[in-house]
Amino acid sequence: MAAPRPTVAVIIPAYNAVATLPGCLDAINAMGWKADELILFSDGSTDATDDIARAAGATVIRNDGKPRGPGHGRNEAAKAATSDLLLFVDADVVISRDAMEQLVTELQAHGAKAAFGSYDDSPWSQRVTSLYANLRHHFVHQHGKREAKTFWSGLGLIDRQVFLDAGGFDVVMFKHPSIEDIELGARVVAAGHRIRLVPEALCKHWKDWSLWRVWHTDVVRRALPWSRLIVDGKTGEADL
C-alpha cells in the first residue's frame, strides 16, 4: 500500500518581486498536486508584491522594516506553517507542473527528510553571463549524486519538524543570501537524515545575471563562506 500523501506548505521569500512573482505563483497554482498551504514572506516590499500574492491565494507574512534576507523569511514562514513538509521556492523561478510530486515521491521512496531539484536548461535570460550561471547550475545538479549531502532552497523540500529541530537557516552566520542552504543541508545530514537530489524536478530561472553579479556571488557569497565552513569542519561530505 502506498504511503499516505503528506501535506505540503509552499514557502516563497520575496522582496519587490513584481517582475517575476506572477509567473512563479501561476506555476505553483497549476501544479498537478496542489499545495495545502501557500505562504509568502514579504521582506519589506514596497511594491505590489503583497497584493499579487494575496490575489493568487497566498497567506502573506510581512516584515515592515529593512529587508532581513530570504533565510529569515523562510524561517518565519516555516514557523507559521502547519503542514508536514515545506517546499521552498524562490520568487524568481517557475516550477514544472510535476516538480512537487517528483520531490515528495522521492522523499517517501527513500525514507529521506529532504529533497531538491534543479534549474532547467532553458533559462529566461539569454545574456551570456546568465546562460553561464544557470546552465552551470543545471549541469552540476543533473550530474550530482542522488544521495546528497547538501540542500538547495531554490526548489527544495524538507520535513518541517526536521527543519525546525535543526534551527532553520543560520541567519547569524549568513546575514545576506549566500550558502545558507548548503550549510543547513550539512547539519541535516550530520543529524542522521537523508537528502535526495532529484534532477527530474525542474524549474526555470528568471534571474538576469550581470557579469559583476556572477563574480560577486561566486566569490563573496559562495567561495569565501564555503572556505570558512571547510576550515571549521562543517561541510561534511558535501559535493555540490
In a nutshell, what does this entry contain?
This protein is an alpha/beta fold. Helices cover 38% and strands 21% of the residues.
Q: Radius of gyration, rounded? A: 17 Å
Please tally the helical runs, counting DSSP H or I stretches of 4 or more residues: 8
State the end-to-end distance.
Answer: 35 Å
Percentage of residues in strands: 15-25%
Unreliable stretches (pLDDT < 50, length at least 5) are: none
Mean pLDDT: 85
Structural class: alpha/beta
Q: What's the β-strand tally?
A: 9
Net shape? globular
Order of helices and strands: EHEHEHEEHEHEEHHEH
Biggest β-sheet description:
9 strands, mixed
Range of helix content: 25-40%
Which features does this protein show?
240 residues; alpha/beta; 8 helices; 9 strands; 38% helix
Strand-helix topology:
Layout: E1 8-14, H1 21-29, E2 37-43, H2 49-55, E3 59-63, H3 70-80, E4 85-89, E5 93-95, H4 99-110, E6 114-119, H5 128-142, E7 147-148, E8 155-159, H6 160-165, H7 180-190, E9 195-205, H8 211-231
Parallel strand pairs: 1-2, 1-4, 2-3, 6-9
Antiparallel strand pairs: 4-8, 5-9, 6-8, 7-9
Overview of this structure, please?
The protein has helices at about 20-30, 50-55, 70-80, 100-110, 130-140, 160-165, 180-190, 210-230, and strands at about 10-15, 35-45, 60-65, 85-90, 95, 115-120, 145-150, 155-160, 195-205. It has about 240 residues and is of the alpha/beta class. Strands 1, 2, 3, 4, 5, 6, 7, 8 and 9 form a 9-stranded mixed sheet that branches. The longest helix is centred in the C-terminal third of the chain and has 21 residues, at about 210-230.
